[in-house]
Structures are given as C-alpha cells and as structure tokens.
Amino acid sequence: MTGHDDGVAAHGRAVAATLDRARVELGSLDRAVYQAVASTPSPTIDRAVGQISNAANYSRLWMVTAGILSATGPKRRRAALIGLAAVGATSAVSNLVVKPVMSRGRPERTESVRTRGVRMPESHSFPSGHTASAFAFSSAVGGELPALATPLRLMATTVAYSRVHTGVHYPGDVVIGALLGAGIGTATRLLAHRGGWAVVSGR
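Now predict its structure.
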C-alpha cells in the first residue's frame, strides 16, 4: 500500500469515526428531547392531543379529509385522490422498507393520563408512519390547492407532535417521517401530473 493509499484509508477512518460520534450525540439529543416532553406536565391538552393521535390511526383523518374535498368539486376531488395515492405510497415505503431496515425500538414510556388511550404500536419506531402519511397528504394536496397548504401542514405538524407527546415516538422519528412523507407526497403529485390524471378532474 502506498503512502497515498494510507492517507486515504486514514481519512476514511476519521470520517467514519466522526459520523459515529455524531450518530451517538444525535441519539442522546433525541432521547433528551423526548424525556423533556414526557416530564413536562400538560393536563389541559393531554386528552385532546391523544385524540388527535388516534384520529390519524390507519390514515382515517386523511381519508375523511379527502372525502370532504371530493364532495366540493372536480379540482378538489383530483387533489384528494392524489393525496390518498401519496399516503399509500408513503405507508408502503415507511412500513415495508424503512422500518424493517432501521429496526429502532419504541420508547419506554411511563403510563399516565397522557398516554392512556393511545396504544403503543408493535412495529418499529423509525420513522413515524403517522407523521410520514400526514406530510405526504398535506404536501400532495397542498401543492394542488395552495389555499389549503398551510392548514393541512399545521394539521400534519400537530399529528407529528402528538406522537411524541403521547410517548410512542422519539422526536427524530417524526422529523424523518415528515421529510420522507413530504418528499413522497411531492413526487406523487409530480408523477400524477406527468401521467395526466385528467379523468379524475372531470375533464
């Protein structure tokens, strides 16, 4: 091995060590934020946040929203269908690809009034599927209907926070879930336009 090769190998080891330290530090920060949320009393909002979290189970919140949109005109019907397609694609990627690969365990939460009524899922924790679906729908539909973009993203953000608040996800799970969902939602919308979904727009 030449001196140049030795230098490249040493640089590679240094980069790997730095990335490993960063991973450990980010994990510590993630758990610290989770514990900060869990240890902060919030009895006024606990029940409402739990209800929001449960409303998003099996993407029911987004299916209901899509149903309402579909009943208000062809343009909104098209947006709703694109949004549901984005949710389907995101759920598949999150649950069938990313979760099994990452295999992150769920948080060890303390049972309380805050967590009561919100079931701890048996699937892996990373990323948050609820959050991914929420941002997939809000990104896809918000791109089609700009007037609804902000309200939908606020809804998605509330769902994301609810998963940390109720103790079923670490903050990092929802951050990556949001990025994954937003990316797939945007891609689904672009593919729908490229594919010419004229039939669902009523034209």
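The two ends are 67 Å apart (CA to CA).
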